[in-house]
Design brief:
Length: 284
């Protein structure tokens, strides 16, 4: 495995691989890697000749500068994990390398980016699209891998790829959870032991709502989750929306579409956690 810090060095290495007819996969990350990331890398390694993992805490997608400062940075540990998973390249650029000048591009994929995170984190998805497009331009992957925990982000990146005609496949990978159900997240490292126990109530509420939904309306199910979170000291619900899995627009009935997802964001202390659950999913 090779650690590279510049686009020029990365492209020189990948062009040589591409000239040999090798396929290239990309896993974009912000580091602080865990088993969820490892699952993406495993799939990337299995489906491509060369696996590239980017490790870059992207400043343009943080609307809260305090959140940016607190985001964990663990490159040395990340590299150990990635080498063990078979990654060929780790691309860990500086901010100056990725943004030699201010990126003034504006990405708009309404209505996908005007709901949920789009409301509560203004500018977030514009920053995501800025950095992901830069990574696509630098790596020119055949496939790129993203986790379904960031469900809205995945939908927006798919739309960006479609509109910008990137010649690559976006591969969505299932949420990876701890044995007790907590969705893996780099932000979990910021939870105290007590907060982690409290945070477990997020996934519990979602899983219980699957059973609840079998004989209750969509509105009743939404209220069930909201009230379940409100009943837990130490949790503060930012939003819970039950949406069409393709358009991300709120639905009012289980019969509205064949793909229904519940998306939630909750503060546990000062740590912002996201999760989602699929109520209905059509066979693809």
């Amino acid at each position: 495995m090779k650690l590279v810090h510049t686009i020029q060095e990365l492209q020189a290495a990948l062009n040589a691989m591409r000239a040999q007819g090798k396929t290239i996969g990309l896993v974009p990350t912000m580091g602080a890697l865990h088993a969820g990331h490892a699952s993406l890398v495993k799939r990337c390694v299995a489906e491509n000749d060369v696996a590239v993992v980017s490790v870059f805490v992207n400043p343009t997608q943080f609307n809260d500068q305090n959140d940016l400062l607190k985001y964990p940075r663990t490159l040395e540990a990340d590299c150990r994990l990635l080498e063990g998973e078979g990654a060929a390249f780790v691309f860990a650029p500086s901010v100056e390398e990725m943004y030699p000048e201010a990126d003034t591009r504006r990405f708009s994929y309404a209505p996908l980016d005007t709901v949920m995170e789009g409301i509560h984190r203004p500018g977030h998805f514009n920053g995501v699209c800025q950095i992901v497009s830069k990574l696509f331009d630098a790596v020119k992957p055949d496939r790129a891998y993203f986790g379904e925990k960031d469900f809205q982000q995945l939908a927006i990146i798919r739309e960006m790829v479609r509109q910008m005609h990137y010649p690559l496949e976006i591969v969505g990978c299932p949420i990876v959870r701890e044995a007790d159900g907590l969705a893996l997240s780099s932000r979990n490292a910021r939870l105290s032991e007590a907060e982690r126990a409290t945070a477990l109530n997020i996934s519990r509420a979602l899983f219980r709502s699957l059973d609840f939904a079998r004989d209750h309306t969509l509105a009743e199910t939404k209220r069930f989750v909201e009230e379940s979170i409100a009943a837990v000291d130490g949790l503060r619900l930012e939003y819970f929306e039950i949406v069409d899995g393709r358009t991300l627009q709120a639905v009012s009935s289980w019969d509205d579409t064949d793909y229904i997802v519940g998306c939630i964001t909750v503060y546990c202390g000062d740590v912002r956690l996201i999760d989602n659950i699929k109520y209905k999913e059509s066979i693809k």
